[in-house]
Design goal:
It is built from eight helices and 20 strands. By secondary structure, the chain is an alpha+beta fold. It is globular. InterPro entries: TUNICAMYCIN_INDUCED_1.
Length: 385
């Protein structure tokens, strides 16, 4: 019985990863991943000049985009900024890419905020040089607007934006059971008195965003519009509920509202007494930015450093000059570079089929076995007894 050893690592990788999906690397591609190499060398205490990128598994590249930023303030003084990357789902390319540099550029151009829904009333502005494109029921479309006023009972889907920001004034001085009602006599900016009964929640977007508007209860119904100017359009509500008091509205964007509520609870637990004593209010500015996060597997080639002291030892004489290791990388794409967030070494997948010699001996009857002629040359068996 012959012992079957482990398959070579190169053969295993060939079986696991299709040949056409593993990208070879040149000097320009290695430069893009320079930050990844620095993180790997620092984590494993390797010399940076001894490692390089050799291959990347393009068939397993996954990407997503969403980044949250929050600026918390007390009065007019900003206190802190919090960042978080959110990966709700991973996307993949339908066709494998053959050049990693082009792949990074393509991911950078595809970075947009996920489509989200907002229910009125609110006010949406677009910053920079971009304009908004609108799509209404009954195949009605408009373009070239910088500001949209949305009434109660109308839902708008926003897609294609590169950044979304809201400014939320928090009633941090109130107790958790306090009322959020504010008298009508308090000074507030109401954009359009005759159309809206409460101040509009301000939302600001960047990028060439597209809006799809419809009535929340009847999506196919016609929406009454009013052109305030060449760049301002108003979606009129069906009715207006007049009242001498209104309740300050929470952030209408679900993903931001949940995070802002969590920050407010933390804020109150630490500084609630101080805020109530001072009589000042706090604020939370929340942003959603398009930030591409990519996940891929890359092979690193490490060259062992040779010197006179170690070269003479038997262990170093038999050790290979180059070692190849696969890593799984989670990184953010910024300005044509890949900034690593997490790097994890992948354990080699070794296939081996071996049988203990003792188990074979117990099942063999030598009296029933035929004679075996052994050649006169020396015969060595590499087995474990």
């Amino acid at each position: 019985m012959r012992r079957t050893g482990a398959l070579p690592v190169s053969l295993i990788l060939f079986l696991i990863f299709p040949l056409q999906s593993i990208l070879a690397f040149n000097s320009s591609t290695t430069q893009i991943l320079q930050d990844v190499l620095k993180k790997i060398s620092a984590k494993h205490k390797w010399y940076l000049q001894d490692i390089r990128v050799s291959r990347l598994d393009a068939s397993r590249v996954r990407w997503s985009a969403q980044r949250y930023e929050f600026r918390v303030g007390f009065g007019k003084i900003p206190v802190g900024v919090l960042f978080s990357d959110d990966v709700s789902s991973w996307k993949k390319f339908r066709q494998p890419r053959t050049h990693f540099g082009s792949l990074v550029k393509e991911l950078s151009s595809m970075a947009v905020v996920d489509t989200f829904k907002v229910e009125g009333p609110f006010e949406l502005r677009v910053g920079g040089t971009h304009h908004l494109s609108l799509s209404l029921p009954m195949n009605t479309t408009y373009s070239g607007f910088k500001r949209v006023l949305v009434g109660k009972g109308i839902t708008v889907e926003v897609s294609g934006a590169t950044e979304v920001s809201v400014f939320h004034a928090s009633d941090l001085g109130l107790s958790s059971k306090g009322s959020g009602a504010i008298g009508k006599e308090k000074s507030e900016f109401w954009p359009i008195w005759h159309s809206y009964c409460t101040p509009l929640f301000p939302i600001r977007v960047l990028g060439p965003a597209t809006l799809v508007a419809y009535k929340t209860q009847n999506p196919d119904a016609r929406i009454e519009t009013k052109f305030m100017s060449k760049e301002i359009i108003e979606f009129l509500p069906e009715k207006c509920y007049r009242s001498h008091a209104y309740k300050k509205r929470a952030c209408p964007i679900d993903s931001l509202r949940l995070r802002i509520s969590m920050l407010e609870r933390i804020w109150k637990s630490f500084l609630g007494d101080r805020i109530r004593q001072s009589g000042l209010s706090g604020f939370v500015e929340g942003k959603i930015k398009a930030s591409t996060v990519v996940r891929f597997k890359v092979e690193i080639e490490k060259e062992f450093r040779r010197n006179g002291a170690l070269q003479g030892k038997a262990g170093w004489r038999t050790r290979p000059a180059v070692e190849r290791v696969w890593f799984e990388v989670l990184a953010r794409v910024e300005f044509g570079r890949v900034k690593p967030l997490l790097v994890k070494k992948i354990r080699p997948f070794i296939v081996a089929d071996s049988v203990a010699w003792s188990s074979l001996m117990s099942n063999i009857s030598f009296t029933k076995s035929s004679s075996v002629l052994v050649p006169s040359e020396a015969l060595t068996l590499d087995v474990k007894w």
